[in-house]
Amino acid sequence: MAEPDKLVEELEKILPGRVIRNVSGYLKDWWPLFWVDRNASGEAIAVVRPENIDEILKLVRFANSSGLKIIPRGGGSSVTGSSVPQGGVVLDMRGLNQILDLDEFNRTVTVQVGVALDELERRLNARGYTHSQFPQSFDQATVGGYISTFGSGQYSTLYGGVEESVLRVEVVIPSGDVLWTRMTGSPRSSMGPDLSRLFIGAEGSLGVITAAELKIRKLPKHLWKAAFVFKDYESALNECRSLMDLDVKPAACRAYNETESIFQFGEQRCVTLLVYHFSSREVMEDVVNEVSAQFGQSAEPLSSELVDLWLMRRFNYREELKGVQKMGYLPETVEVGVKWGRLFELYKDVVERFKKEEGVAGVGAHVSHLYDQGACIYFTFIFKPEKDVYWRIWDTMFDVAKSHEATLSHHHGMGALKSRYAEREIPVVLIQAIKKGLDPNDILQGQIRS
């Protein structure tokens, strides 16, 4: 491979006006490790910010001929180091930011991947529709980053995660070709495997996603918001599970342990929030009666203003970070996906292991995504900003997840952080074979390596 300066000069000739030499703003995302380890930040020789597919094709073809490494980047909201470069160039996808088609009759929207999720939602809302995907990074994440990290939003219990949102994607593969993963946008096809799933969660390692056709739906006409308090966390989790047996599932169900309830609501008991979406008022009234009666057997109702408080503050992660930093600590989040039969035991295991963990000041937990088979339990650790403390948290959580047959990453993706634990959860040899077939020259940097 040529010297970095010469590579950048060649890039500037191939892509005039698209090459940025000042890379400092692209070396970090929201990975907490950056605050405790100065050596964790990445390195890159340049940033390329294309505005169309042809420019991406030129970059990919140049990379194949020169050995240049590429790492795609969206809004930079990863908390696992998914887009931290380790040499080569950063491919800033935010220049591809057009909504290409809104098909209201068939309820789809086709967008370029640099469109921010909040901008997409505003545009859809203005026409009476919603994408229904609301991650905590909603105000920063792009469509492409959300797809590439296998994201999931706060209303996933009803609408599913990103995998339920995507009909198909357009992708530039490392050979320098551009294609759609399906030729048609039909709602379902059994014509071979769903190739979109190769790229959902691949974090840019197998191809550069450039556009996606997504499902949309009408905005709900009616919302029901409710809050309850339980005597203990096990009772709260049991009632959350029981909701999945009812005919209508909640858009969101969030069950907080005592520690996190204090922080969020000033309530030293286990608070559970419910949000339901409806088109029919009559259906809403029946569901309200059924859920209220069921929860009333083991819980005490609280004011629905607690739900309004959560909705108002749910994207305020910047302010929360500053508040914890002022106390001399940092927060880290670990979102574990686990079956119902192991959920409470896993929770108790985490609490017990961190009772006397040096450097960890507190452990909050809430259940945030429900399924028929299990749930995501989202732990927040308040820890002393030291590298050793940080890695002890993750190594301990790896052991906990392993012992309870759980995943260490429900919706934050893998990134540089979790790649060290990947072999326990996925057949890496199969992923590497796919990588080698699609990207034999290994030009797309990521955690999947050939």
Mean pLDDT: 95
Helix content: 25-40%
Any idea what the radius of gyration is? 22 Å
Distance between the termini: 19 Å
Task: Characterize the structure shown.
- The protein is an alpha+beta fold and 450 residues long.
- Among the domains are: 95-218, Uridine Diphospho-n-acetylenolpyruvylglucosamine Reductase, domain 3, CATH 3.30.465; 222-313, Alpha-Beta Plaits (2-Layer Sandwich); 317-413, GMP Synthetase, Chain A, domain 3.
- It is 34% helix and 23% strand.
- A 7-stranded antiparallel beta sheet has the order 15-12-14-13-17-18-16, sandwiched between helices.
- Strand 17 (360-370) and strand 18 form a beta hairpin.
- Helix 13 packs antiparallel against helix 14 (387-403).
- It is globular.
Name a few traits of the molecule.
single chain; 450 residues; alpha+beta; Uridine Diphospho-n-acetylenolpyruvylglucosamine Reductase, domain 3; Alpha-Beta Plaits; GMP Synthetase, Chain A, domain 3; seven-stranded antiparallel sheet; 16 helices; 34% helix; globular
Write the layout of secondary structure elements.
Layout: H1 4-14, E1 19-20, E2 46-48, H2 53-66, E3 70-73, E4 89-92, E5 99-103, E6 108-112, H3 117-125, E7 129-130, H4 143-148, H5 156-159, H6 162-165, E8 166-173, E9 177-180, H7 196-199, E10 208-215, E11 217-218, E12 222-230, H8 233-243, E13 252-256, H9 258-265, E14 270-278, H10 281-295, E15 299-302, H11 305-313, H12 317-326, E16 330-339, H13 340-353, E17 360-370, E18 374-383, H14 387-403, H15 415-418, H16 428-438
Parallel strand pairs: 2-4, 3-4
Antiparallel strand pairs: 1-2, 5-6, 6-10, 7-11, 8-9, 8-10, 12-14, 12-15, 13-14, 13-17, 16-18, 17-18
Helix pairs in contact: 13-14
